[in-house]
Amino acid sequence: MMRRLLPAMLLLTALTGCGDEPAGADGKLPVVTAFYPLQFVSERVGGDAVDVSTLTKPGAEPHDVELTARQVGEVSDAGLIVYLAGFQPAVDDAVKQNGGDRAFDAATAVETINATEADAHAEGEEEHSGVDPHVWLDPTRLAGIADKVAERLGKADPAHAADFTARAATLRTELTALDGEFTTGLANCARRELVTSHTAFGYLADRYELTQIGITGIDPETEPSPQRLAAVAAEAKEHGTTTIFFETLVSPKVAETIAKEVGAQTAVLDPVEGLADGSADYFSVMRANLAALKLGLECS
Ligand SMILES: [Zn+2]
């Protein structure tokens, strides 16, 4: 009798095992996020119902992240994976192999734009599909991602669906306020050309009607050609640029080279890809960015 039942019981266990949503030891839904802004959104929307981890260490440059075997395991065990296809090849691979329908590509929640002309000429460009991945630098697009994260969390954990929706709405209110600060703060500026080492600000430029002049390209570690450096320096001079922006997670060398060439200064503009300072968050970094832009572009 037992012998006959056993295969059927094993089959039943396997079936219910598939249907169960993965839950951590504390009953919280494990959510794996690819890098900081997606971690920030998932934490804000998920609240205490989820256990959020991130595949990019704080302070690390996320474009070229490598995953450990343990992190690949986390992807396999997650209830939801929030990532951005085309941004981090190692994460794309892990999702392709182990993500299944638990993976949510944040880029599908927003209207994407193509990488700038500068990037089309950068070396190694064939690795990029032509879409600019830095969608989170437009707060209104990040709000759209938060809504979709709430929807996906609600499907994975229906008991908390209403909480997720409510938290996403609160976050949207805050992001809309931030968007308003940017619109007002950048309304009247002496210049609208944003010269930056890492070409990460396409969405910010798109939203607030600035013109991004990128030096290195979409991937900050791409070495710009001497021709590219000369072209950017000429453009910066032509527009009377006084500030060349660089980011904190990679070397400022390229920005300093151009700045010297055109007699400008350098200032930090943070692409919010990974936080070096644990006390900062998306809002505080974006407000520091706004202050730097107002100073560098002479906005009144
Ligand atoms: Zn980037």
UniProtKB/TrEMBL annotation:
So which residues are the signal peptide here?
1-19
Q: What Gene3D superfamilies does the record tag this protein with? A: Nitrogenase molybdenum iron protein domain
Alphabetically list the UniProt keywords: Signal, Transport
Q: Which GO terms describe its biological process?
A: cell adhesion; metal ion transport
UniProt GO molecular function: metal ion binding
Taken from the record, one Pfam family name reads: ZnuA
Could you name the domain of life of the organism this protein comes from?
Bacteria
Q: Which family is annotated?
A: Belongs to the bacterial solute-binding protein 9 family.
Q: What is this protein called?
A: Zinc transport system substrate-binding protein
At the highest ranks, the source species' classification is: Bacteria, Bacillati, Actinomycetota, Actinomycetes, Micromonosporales
